Amino acid sequence: MTEITDAGATLPIAVQQFVLHWGEMGGQWGVNRSVAQIHALLYLSDRPLNAEEISDTLGIARSNTSNSLKELLGWKLIRRAPVMGDRRDHYVAEVDLMQMVTRIAQGRKEREIDPAVAALRICTDEAKADPRISQVARERITAMHDFMREIDDWYQQMIAVPPSRLMLLIRMGKRVLAFLPKAKGE
Q1: Rounded to whole angstroms, how far apart are CA atoms 167 and 147?
Q2: Which of 39, 88, 132, 177 is deepest in the core (most CB within 10 A)?
Q3: What are the E-state strand segments in the chain?
Q4: 4 pLDDT band (50/70/90 cuts)?
Q5: The pTM is what?
Q6: Can you tell me the distance from the alpha carbon of 54 to that of 34, in angstroms, rounded to the nearest whole number?
Q7: What's the mean per-residue pLDDT of the chain?
Q8: 9 falls in which pLDDT band (50, 70, 90)?
């Protein structure tokens, strides 16, 4: 595991565990471990940090830190924060959890859902035009395309829900089923 130090002093164990765990989770989600660890460190920091402090604290190369910061800026999960009397760039993380989740969801949608919908649209059109494609394959391609479009539509609806209402919906969990009509076979 990455050794985490703060200019020679060890960070509190809970901070270390959070940063390391966030890094591991990032890896499982397809995010570079260093990117996730830097995000976690900035999220927990009570002050803006510069790249050198981040590199020293996490024990990672300055070039890795620089590239990771660019990626986090691209996701809009961090921003530059000026510090009086210091010309270096300092960074802070978005700390509003709903904003953070929304930005992550938007980025994932753009990188995963949108290309899938586009690719499946092409596959559907090609399947309809190709007599060599079996009816079963054609129906399954179309069903997958329709499903991904439904996911995209659902995302568009959910992103428009005000954060307080969205949290209420999340907290309701499966109780929301009481408001839905029963499906066949239930």
Answers
A1: 25
A2: 39
A3: 5-6, 9-10, 49-50, 78-80, 90-93
A4: low
A5: 0.80
A6: 10
A7: 92
A8: low
